[in-house]
Amino acid sequence: MIEIDGKIVSIDLLTEHFCCDIAKCKGICCVDGNSGAPLDMDEVDLLEENYEAYKPYLKPEGVAAIEQQGFAVVDEDGDLTTPLINDAECAYSFEENGVTLCAIERAWRDGKLEFQKPISCHLYPIRVAKFSNGTIGLNYHRWNVCAPARSCGTRLGIPVYKSLKTPIERCFGEEFYKALEEAEKFIKENREPKN
Fold it and tell me: Is 90 helix (H, G, I), strand (E, B) or coil?
């Protein structure tokens, strides 16, 4: 772990490789798991306010899940998360050509709303931890369904954080991303054997 701009960052974000390979994983991260994606209260408000904009993209089962459970649910850990269809698939998902995608993001891409998707989804596999003293931690979450992304990232030589430039800048700003680049450079220079 290293501290960057007051945040505790797992070194794995700088040294491990990752690049989504949706053609291979088919968006399984939106289907598998034991609870929905983490949300904050502001996002729940945005999901409710923009419902009519992304509703046409949802599956009928997703509409039913949202209308029965609400725009967010509290999971067994006491965290706000996205509601699920049959305790599995995210209610905000839809399927296209055998791939599960985010209805919110599709509506955003089509210019129907300004909210791209929940930040926890956008940042994945980075998981943000908020500690009681106000410190924020950024951890690398390894999930077996993301094996294709690890293989693709390794093949292309893309560190975890570089594959997530847009969401990192969305959440923490451009300066923080630049600090991650400097930290990666420092680690590489200090790990390489000197002649």
Answer: strand
Q: Give pTM, 2 decimals.
A: 0.84
pLDDT of amino acid 179: 93
CA angle 26, 20, 50 (to 5 degrees): 75
Question: Exposed, middle or buried by CB within 10 Å (0-12, 13-18, 19+), for 57?
Answer: buried
Reduced 3-state DSSP string for 28-61: HHHCCCCCCCECCHHHHHHHHHCHHHHHHHCCHH
pLDDT value at residue 194: 54
Count other Cβ atoms within 10 Å, centred on residue 13: 24
Exposed, middle or buried by CB within 10 Å (0-12, 13-18, 19+), for 145? middle
If phi > 0 it is left, if psi is from -120 to 50 it is alpha, else beta; for residue 81 that is beta
CA 73 to CA 56: how far, in whole Å? 22
> Helix, strand, coil proportions of the chain in percent (round to 5)?
45, 20, 35
Given this model, what pLDDT does residue 60 score?
A: 95
Q: How far apart are CA 85 and CA 69, in angstroms?
A: 10
Task: Look at the alpha carbons of 103, 111, 44, 133 in this order and tell me if their dihedral is positive or negative.
Answer: positive
What pLDDT is recorded for position 27?
Answer: 84
pLDDT along the chain (195 residues), means of 10: 86 92 85 84 94 95 95 89 91 91 94 92 89 87 87 92 94 93 87 59
